[in-house]
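Protein record

Derive tokens from sequence
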Amino acid sequence: MLVQTVASNFRARFGDQVKENVVLAPYTSARIGGPADFLITVRSSDELIDAVQLCQGTNLPMRLIGGGSNILVSDKGVRGVVILNKAKASEFHKSNAPTAWAESGVVLSNFAHRTAAEGLSGLEWAATIPGTVGGAVYGNAGAYGSDIAQNLVRAEILTETGREWWPVNNMNYGYRRSIFKDNGINCVILSAEFRLNNGDPETMKTAIEQYSIRRKATQPPGASMGSMFKNPPGDYAGRLIEAAGLKGMRIGNAEISNVHGNFFINHGATRAEDIKSLIFQAKEKVKKLFNIELELEVELIGEWE
């Protein structure tokens, strides 16, 4: 009865944007994962707020996903409601102190390309990064010596008391860390504003092309979650995994990439449990050989044994 009532309430607000018993693999960059009880696709911050508030009025758990990178969904799937964030509005404000604003469902790489095309510099490094603006703010995404913390001015957050603007100093940012990840606070990122600089579009286009070439040369093709582990202080997770002799190791169709040891590849119809087994073996062997505890950058979501 609860499930029928919940489904009816969701459909009254979102219509065919609500689906039941949906396999999540196609919604993740790794193409891995079982079903969600409910999947609601939202296309604006207002819809995102409505979906969150509807979920809060039920006894069902809720999970928000964007581009589906940096997550591993279990084979058993996710109980409750998964909200797929497709809120994609953005604005560009040109001045002597230019800024750009984006809703949390905007794809970060697309946003970086658009800021460059507008003659606004500062996010060129993000033009090859998967995931959404919301995910980047959540996890302090970064590459090539830069990260979100360097550009973010403030983020619009939905808390239990309503919409609030939080300045970047509130985020407790560190290497792939934030107040959201570390404290598990009950809130949702709605949008973000970034500080940029005026620049030459052609110069920025060249910089983006160079980042793209560098990424293709160092990171493997194929379906993956992105970097599996955070780099430990003074070292690199990929180097440690390679030194442990684990590059190319396979379980089923899951493989620790031969190109980069910190990428775990789905070669087709891969089970999440096989990826998890590779994670365990990499952590165990690196710990045994080098006495270093690798910390996951990827989040495991759903039902796990």
About this structure: The first helix runs from residue 2 to 14.
